[in-house]
Give the backbone structure.
Amino acid sequence: MHELAITESIVEAVAERLPGARITCVRLEIGALSGVVADSVRFCFDLVTEGTSLEGARLEITEVAGRCRCRVCGTDFEPDGPIALCPCGSIEIKVLSGQELKIASVQCRPGGTTPPAEVA
Amino acid sequence: MCATCGCAGSGAVVQLFPAPRPGRADADRGHGQHDHQHHEHHEHPGTPAAGDERTVLLEQKVLAKNDRLAELNRDWLRQRSVLAVNIMSSPGAGKTTLLERTAREMAGRMHMSVIEGDQAGALDAERIRSAGCRVVQINTGAGCHLDAEMVAGGLRVLDPPSGSVVVIENVGNLVCPALFDLGEQARVVLASVTEGDDKPLKYPHMFRQADLVLVSKTDLLPYVDFDSRRHAADVRRASPNALMLQLSASTGAGMQEWYAWLRRRTPAPQE
C-alpha cells in the first residue's frame, strides 16, 4: 500500500509549494506503468488531507496510457499489462509514456505568498 | 532527522548496533529501547485568505522530494567512496541469511555494514551483529518500505568508512520498495525457489528495477516445483539487462560469484 506514502508526498509537496494557500482541487497524472493505482490514491486522499490546507479539495486524476516502442522492429504499441512485450516477440522496449506520477496543477485560494507560476 | 539519536523525521526509528568487539559479547548494544517522542514537523496552514480561485501549474513529480534526497545520499556515498546496495525481496526469501553468511565469509576481506529495514523489532539487526557486522536498524512503523530520508539517517549513524560496502536490507515486500530510490548505486532482488517461479510476472515493477537478480535457496530445488528456465526467461522479460546468479546461503553454493559482483563495484578507499 505505497499509495498512502505517495498520497502523503502529494500533500506535502503541494503544501510546500503553496504555503498558506487553501487548496480546492488537485490534478494528478498517473501512468499505467507507474506502479501506482489511481483508485488507491483516491481512497487515501481524504484521509491524508484531513487537517491540512488540502482538506476538502477535489481530486482529479488523469490516467495516462502506456505507450512503448520496440527497439528491434520500431513498432509503437500499447502494452496490455505492466510487462511490455512487442507483438514481434522482442523484449527490447523503450517506454514512451505511462510512467508519469506527477502533480500537474492545483486550484487554490491564495494566502500570503505568491505562487511560483500562474495561469489565468 | 533527530540529531540526538538519529530517529528519522518521517516517524521511522533508527538505532545503531556496533559490530561486537572481541571479548565483549554484549557490551555494545545500541540504545535501542529508548522511548522516543517523535517530532512533528508539519506546517500548519493558516486561515485561508479570501480571494479568487487560481490554477497553479506545478508539473512536479510526486516523488520529487524523495528523489532529491536520494541524489544527496548518492553524492554523499560517492564522496566517501562507499558502495550502497539496496536488497529487496518478499519476506522470508533469505535476505538476512545471505547477509549473515556474507559478513562471516568476507570478514577481513571486505568492510561491510548493514542498514536493516523492518516494520518493527531488531531481530534481523541482532542476527547481522552476531555475524560480526556493524548494523543500523530502521523501524518503519506503519511504512511498507524504506525511503531516502530514512536511509540518510541510517547512513549518518552508520558512518561507513571509505572503500566499504553498505547493504540496505529493505522491508520484505515485492511491491512498494520498487518505487523509492534510496540513493543506492545498485538494486538487488532476491527470489527464493520456495516462492515459486511466477514472481517476475506477478511483480514486474520490482524485477524491472533490478541490476542483479539472485535466485536463492537453490539447495531446495529438488524439493520444490520451480522451473529455473521459466523463471530466468520471465526475469529477462521484466528486466532485459539484469544479471542473474543462483546461490544458496545454506550450502554456500554460488556465493563466490555474489562476492565477486560486490567487489567489482566497491570503490577503492581514499588515500
